[in-house]
Amino acid sequence: MQNTGARYRRLAQEGLPECRVIAVDLRGHAGSTWDPPWGADTHVADLLDTMDDLGLGRASVVGHSFGGMLTTHLVAAAPGRVERAALLDPAVAIAPSTAAQNAEDTRRDDGWETAEEARAARAAMRPPHAVGTVEEDLRVFMRRDEDGRYRFAFSRPAAITAWGEMARPPVTLDGFGGDLLLVTALRADLVNDRLRNRLRLDLGDRFREVGIDAGHMLFWDAFEELVAYLRPFLGLPPLPV
Predict the structure, then answer these.
(1) Strand 142-144 versus strand 150-152 pairing type
(2) To pair with 186 at 20 to 30 A between CA atoms, which of 35, 84, 89, 211?
(3) Which residues lie below 8 Å from residue 162, measured CB to CB, with a gap of 6+?
(4) Which structural domains are found in the chain, ordered by start?
């Protein structure tokens, strides 16, 4: 899970080609409804409804950032529906001051005057080997609003709500019987000991953490390394060389 499922395209098609991957647009993002409420409980209910509609009784779940936080809430609410869970640099129990600043930045989002300006700004955020991800992301997730400015297609109120949810304490997962993999982006400084300690307490040796020397967008910036950890966790052999 990530805010827009399109961002998982390469991971699904190239990293996990033999798997059936359901990548959702969360409520308030891209092609899903933008109607409130936008809290974690509603997102979890949406995810369970989606699983029901697709006939998925039980599935492995991979969540990135806010999607990683929602994965923990999904596991807590319906542990029997999750076979195993992977959290990719999840945003859980972040500092309230950080959440407040990011929410304020979201409220003041002016976007970009031109598509070229957006392309340059986003490319500056990627390491050289991952700049190619920018074009696809802008193509599927950017739009021109009524004021003529270019912005990503998500509800600002929904995103502000999400920043508040990411400041909540970690949920208890002691009812979950599966394995959990935490993949930490070592250059992002987002994963914290509040989450680690909760997972260790609840899951014991069914919890494993690995670190990747990359920024927050692991599935773009460290694609090969991420796939090398995810595939064995999901019970898959290495990809052919």
Answers:
(1) antiparallel
(2) 84
(3) 28, 38, 66
(4) 5-94+167-233 (3.40.50.1820)
